[in-house]
Write a structure and sequence with these properties.
The complex is a heterotetramer of chains A (129), B (367), C (349) and D (303).
Chain B: H1 12-17, H2 37-46, H3 63-70, H4 72-107, H5 116-154, H6 156-161, H7 167-199, H8 211-216, H9 220-239, H10 242-263, E1 271-275, E2 286-294, E3 297-299, H11 311-320, E4 323-331, H12 336-365
Antiparallel strand pairs in B: 1-4, 2-3, 2-4
Helix pairs in contact in B: 3-7, 4-5, 4-7, 5-7, 5-9, 5-10, 7-9, 9-10, 9-12
Chain C: H1 9-18, H2 20-41, H3 43-55, H4 69-106, H5 109-114, H6 120-152, H7 164-169, H8 173-192, H9 195-216, E1 224-228, E2 231-234, E3 239-246, E4 252-255, E5 261-263, E6 269-272, E7 281-287, H10 292-323
Antiparallel strand pairs in C: 1-7, 2-6, 3-4, 3-7, 5-6
Chain D: E1 6-16, E2 23-33, E3 37-41, H1 48-55, E4 63-68, E5 80-83, H2 95-105, H3 112-120, H4 144-157, E6 162-165, H5 174-191, E7 194-199, E8 211-216, E9 219-224, H6 226-231, E10 234-238, E11 247-253, E12 258-263, E13 273-275, H7 279-288, E14 295-296
Parallel strand pairs in D: 3-7, 3-8, 5-6, 6-7, 9-14
Antiparallel strand pairs in D: 1-2, 1-4, 8-9, 10-12, 10-13, 11-12
Helix pairs in contact in D: 2-4, 3-4
């Protein structure tokens, strides 16, 4: 079961945080098709946010076709998000190699992260929110 | 309730999933809440972890039970007091009276004789009479202070009024729950006192006209208790603070008692006896006034023994003073009940007025 | 009684401010009682005397009958005045227990004071000293007026100097009892820590002191003992205590009542007992009216000693409580309900 | 969505204590739709407690009316819960006795399990129950936070449609605040309970409330969805200029530079740098400027 972590000072709208964290869980395989998302009650009891915020996030996920609400049962994952578990195609291993290389070049952790993000933004500019 | 924040505790999710809801249960939850987005979602999937033992109790609120719960100590104290008074009376009428009677028998014809037991008998009966009669002062203190005053002062009353019980219903419950034991206890006290007082009249110096004996021998005892309760409630509703309400309610019922004590003989028409010669009314009568009839007018300022001497001297004296006879105004013992019931009625009327005023004021204050 | 220079200024003033309603109540009570006593001394007495004289033109002392509307009013007012002054100490005790100390502890005003750079001991000193000033002053005024009323109304007053209420209202013991009420009330308030129960405890304690005082009063000064063969003379106005017969062996045997009352010469009560199984005489003990003053002073001392003990106990109790650096309220806290460490928060919902 | 029934509605509501002391609450008109979680914020003495007492029917307004759940407070008594600021409880009862008191007084609605969860279930991470309440403990012996918990247990046990909570967080530690908010949100999620919480700290309710009532000087200054309220305001910074056309809430600055919080009446000129204010900035600006016009967003005004 996924757990949401709400950062009130991030400046990112609360419902967006839930959407993003759900998607990340889908991407990492923490959530798989058929899994049930926590109920609104469970989420708000743990995070003390307004229930409507959770529902708005779930509606957003439903609109994107990632989850579906089954009456009386809960909200369930319909499909996973694109990515295959990294190691089957060796992507993750190659990324690890790249990190070793960067480390050998004397790059700090922050430098690697900035480098990766710059390349990512150049290739796939951030989608409109 | 749930655990701390989700992020803080790795065990949190497991703890929650243990309470995984049963499907389909969510839809019935929610009482009469308005339909809304969250509710819809709850029905759609979320489910509820409402525990099965969370069934609701049905029926109307029971403020009476709640009042008992809140004031159990006071109830126990009242019960203890009634029992103690009855015990003292029983002991006095059996053990002490025996000793006093033996003492009296010993004293017949003796010029020097201790009468300690007889005095103790009278003292103890008189003490209980005082306690039974003036118990209403303690009731007033309790009603103004602990029962209503403290609840209004510390907000317990507000707590109750926002449960499913209206202020008026709460006041009614408090009055009723307090009135019932007061009535029962008063009845026990009055009946036992009547029994004890009449058991050995020959040993008692107390008369039926004594203020405390007069009240303690009938329903006026209960009436004063109820009045003290009502006045305490009114004082508390007006002042909304325990100690001032206590002071005001005690002072008010004491004043009422003193006023009625002063007017007591006037509450029922008295008997007037006139005669040409001086006379004494029976010792058991309550004499209010006596004097001479001077020129057809009753004058209390002239005593019945103005003219002494031989018959001729008396005649002359009366003629000189224009005294045509003597009179006495009094209540015979048979007037006890009309006098007592009249006083009871007045006290109950005051109690009713105070109760009405308390309800009106409460209604005026709250929505 | 206590010079104002001894009253700590800051806390003293705050005591006055906190109990302004009580101050006004006290002042109006003293004023009302004073007015009643003064009325009974002046116009009331005059009208009652006129009533009496109308019935007894020859003089009141020999008149067996005094009644009339003004006499009735005079009797009521003077009796209520006596009762009022004699029972002031109960009012003081109840107030001190409930409002002065009990409520301040209950609602935390006391703790507020203790955190305003006033030590608990100084707070209690101010709590006691300021009311003591007003209580002493007011009671003294009332006692003086009561004496005035009784002295002026000797020709009409029926109550004797040794009757419980009269005795307690007619001299310095009135002030002593009032101060004792204050001290006992404060102690009860400290011990109980809650207004309404403290009220009950304070009243009960004061009642005990007053009842004991009434009971042991005759023993506070040596009694006068007289013996006679057939009768003894007890002077008029004396407080007659005990009497009995002297047996042939010389032993005194008490009897609960004088065996025979007879109006002796000069209005004195002669106690005459017939010869009874070899009695050689009779005896009686009494306090003459001249003992009023020594009895008052000894009882005043005794009651003030009780008050001092109560005050000392209050200070000791306060020191023991506050030395532990925890407010009195914490004493009653259930064990385990307060978490010992910060990790488990007691107040969580 | 049921916009017809307001959980709480005030029309010209006012209260004053005798003539000489003036108004405690003056001409309050607003409506709170059912199902909302409403933060009632404002400085001390703003009239928050008075408003809640009026809604709870504990006092009678001197002017105007207040409707609770579509009816008067007295008629709605069984359907709302109220927790007063000082959390009054009978000191002589035990915790369990207090809950039984609640059961006796709310027989029609009482949910013993819901009350017990609030009072007794204290989930420390390692199962430590030292912080949970002893049912046999007397109310008198409890700490402020523990008493708050019992008072809230009474409110939850009633299973109300509307909760009126006056400063419920004041005595609680941060963890307990979070747990209380969580429990309240759970109640709202499952039963659609309308919740009104008063507080003078708005940040602690951030994210939890979807409605806001700002009180100041006995008036309702702002009412509505906090996001809408914030969106209606803009922070303008620029050379001192004319601000006509905009509703100015607050403006501060020197001759050369001016910072103003406005409700824009149109697109601001190019000289202005614009920024979105935070909710706290909007609230504080209104409190600092009692003369600024009140704002009640649509949907929350009385029809």
């Amino acid at each position: 079961m996924v757990e949401y972590r709400i950062d009130r000072r991030s400046g990112v709208a609360t419902y967006v945080q839930i959407v993003q964290q759900t998607k990340q869980a889908l991407r990492l395989g923490v959530l798989r098709p058929g899994d049930r998302l926590p109920t609104a009650r469970e989420v708000v009891e743990a995070t003390a946010i307004n229930p409507n915020t959770v529902l708005k996030a779930y509606r957003e996920l439903e609109r994107e076709g990632l989850v579906e609400a089954r009456r009386g049962l809960g909200t369930f994952v319909r499909r996973s998000l694109g990515s295959v578990p990294a190691d089957r195609s060796g992507l993750r291993a190659r990324l690890a190699d790249w990190l070793d290389e960067a480390h050998a070049e004397g790059l700090e952790r922050e430098d690697m992260s900035a480098l990766f993000r710059a390349a990512l933004d150049e290739k796939y500019p951030e989608e409109q929110r | 309730m749930s655990a701390a924040t989700a992020g803080d505790t790795p065990g949190g999710a497991a703890g929650r999933s243990a309470g995984t809801p049963r499907a389909g249960e969510a839809g019935e939850a929610g009482g009469a809440a308005e339909a809304r987005t969250a509710k819809e979602a709850a029905r759609e999937g979320a489910g509820s972890d409402r525990s099965p033992e969370g069934g609701r109790t049905g029926g109307r609120a029971r403020p009476g039970v709640a009042v008992l719960r809140l004031h159990r100590t006071a109830l126990l104290v009242w019960g203890g007091y009634v029992l103690a008074a009855v015990a003292v009376l029983v002991w006095t009428v059996t053990v002490t009276a025996d000793a006093a009677l033996r003492e009296q028998a010993r004293c017949v014809g003796e010029p020097v004789c201790g009468i300690a037991a007889t005095l103790a008998y009278g003292d103890r009966i008189g003490m209980v009479a005082t306690a039974v009669c003036y118990g209403f002062l303690v009731v007033a203190a309790f009603a103004g202070g602990a029962l209503f005053g403290r609840e209004l002062e510390n907000g317990t009353a507000h707590l109750v009024w926002t449960q499913s019980v209206s202020p008026a219903r709460w006041l009614a419950a408090e009055l009723a729950v307090a009135a019932l034991p007061l009535l029962l206890g008063s009845a026990v006290l009055v009946l036992s006192f009547r029994w004890a007082w009449s058991a050995h009249r020959e040993l008692l110096g107390t008369d039926w006209t004594f203020a405390d004996v007069f009240v303690a021998r009938g329903p006026a005892t209960a009436a004063y208790c109820l009045c003290a309760l009502a006045v305490g409630a009114l004082a508390a509703v007006v002042l909304r603070r325990a100690l001032p309400a206590l002071g005001v309610s005690v002072a008010s019922v004491l004043a009422l008692n003193l006023v009625l004590d002063g007017f007591r003989p006037s509450l029922w028409p008295h008997v007037t006896r006139t005669a040409r010669t001086p006379f004494e009314v029976s010792g058991s009568a309550w004499q209010i006034e006596n004097g001479a009839v001077v020129g057809g007018r009753r004058t209390a300022e002239l005593g019945p023994h103005l003219c002494d001497g031989t018959a001729a001297e008396v005649r002359r004296c009366m003629a000189e003073g224009d005294i045509t006879g003597y009179y006495a105004a009094y209540h015979p013992p048979s007037h006890f009940w009309p006098l007592h019931l009249a006083e009871t009625g007045i006290v109950l009327a005051v109690a009713a007025l105070a109760t009405g005023a308390a309800f009106l004021l409460l209604r005026h204050r709250t929505a | 009684m206590i010079p104002s220079s001894l009253v700590p200024r800051g806390p003293g003033r705050s005591v006055l401010r906190l109990h302004r309603a009580a101050l006004w109540t006290w002042l109006s009570l003293v004023a009302a009682t004073s007015a009643a006593l003064l009325w009974a001394y002046g116009p009331g007495h005059e009208s009652a005397l006129a009533d009496a004289l109308r019935q007894c033109p020859d003089g009141i002392a020999l008149c067996d009958r005094t009644s009339g509307p003004w006499i009735g009013r005079y009797d009521t007012v003077s009796a209520l005045g006596t009762i009022g002054v004699a029972h002031l100490s109960f009012l003081v005790a109840g107030w001190a227990g409930a409002a002065l100390v009990g409520r301040e502890l209950e609602n935390g005003t006391a703790h507020l004071a203790w955190t305003q750079s006033v030590s608990p001991a100084r707070w209690l000193a101010a709590e006691l000293a300021v009311p003591a000033l007003f209580v002493s002053a007011g009671t003294t005024v009332l006692v003086l007026l009561h004496r005035l009323m009784r002295d002026g109304g000797r020709d009409l007053a029926w109550a004797s100097w040794y009757e419980y209420d009269v005795f307690r209202a007619d001299g310095p013991v009135a002030v002593a009892y009032a101060l004792c009420g204050l001290a006992l009330g404060a102690l009860a308030g400290l011990v109980v820590g809650r207004a309404l129960p403290a009220l009950g405890v304070a009243l009960a304690a004061q009642l005990a002191v007053v009842v004991l005082g009434n009971e042991y009063r005759p023993k506070l000064w040596p009694v006068v003992s007289v013996t006679g063969t057939g009768s003894v003379d007890v002077p008029s106005g004396a407080a007659h205590l005990h009497q009995g017969v002297i047996t042939a062996g010389g032993a005194r045997r008490a009897t609960s009542v004088p065996c025979d009352f007879a109006d002796g010469p000069n209005g004195a009560n002669g106690v005459r007992c017939g010869a009874e199984d070899g009695a050689s005489g009779v005896w009686a003990t009494y306090h003459p009216e001249s003992h009023f003053r020594p009895l008052q002073l000894v009882e005043t001392g005794a009651v003030l000693a009780v008050a001092a003990l109560a005050v000392a106990a209050a200070f000791l109790l306060l020191r023991r409580r506050t030395a532990a650096a925890s407010p009195p309220a914490a004493a009653g806290r259930a064990p385990g309900s307060v978490p010992a460490d910060g990790s488990a928060t007691g107040a969580s919902v | 969505m049921s916009e017809e029934t307001a959980a709480l509605k005030a029309v010209g509501l006012g209260l004053r204590y005798r003539r000489r002391r003036g108004h405690v609450l003056r001409d309050c008109s607003f409506r709170l739709p059912a199902g909302r979680v409403c933060a009632l914020v404002g400085p001390n003495g703003a009239g928050k407690s008075t408003l809640l007492s009026l809604a709870a029917g504990l006092i009678r307004p001197t002017e105007g009316t207040v409707h609770v759940l579509g009816t008067g407070p007295a008629e709605a008594r069984e359907r709302f819960a109220y927790v007063a600021q000082d959390k009054p409880l009978p000191p002589q009862l035990t915790v369990a006795g207090t809950l039984r008191l609640g059961a006796d007084l709310n027989r029609a609605r009482w949910d013993a399990a819901a009350a017990g969860r609030i009072a007794y279930a204290h989930h420390a991470p390692d199962g430590d129950r030292s912080g949970s309440l002893d049912p046999g403990a007397r109310i008198r012996s409890l700490s402020g936070g523990q008493r708050t918990r019992v008072a809230l247990a009474l409110a939850f046990g009633k299973r109300p449609e509307l909760m009126l909570l006056d400063e419920p967080m004041a005595d609680l530690d941060p963890l307990a605040r979070r747990e209380l908010l969580g429990a309240l949100m759970g109640e709202a999620a499952e039963h659609g309970t309308t919740i009104v919480l008063s507080s003078h700290i708005v940040t602690e309710l951030d994210g939890a409330c979807d409605h806001l009532l700002l009180m100041g000087g006995g008036r309702v200054r702002l009412a509505g969805d906090p996001e809408e309220l914030v969106a209606a305001h803009t922070l303008l910074t620029g050379p001192a200029r004319d601000l006509t056309g905009h509703t100015v809430v607050e403006s501060r600055g020197t001759d050369r530079q001016l910072t103003a919080l406005v409700r824009p009446g149109g697109p601001p000129g190019d000289d202005w740098r614009t920024a979105a204010p935070s909710l706290e900035e909007v609230l504080l600006a209104h409190l600092r400027n009692p003369g600024a016009p009140d704002l009640v967003t649509e949907g929350t005004v009385n029809p």
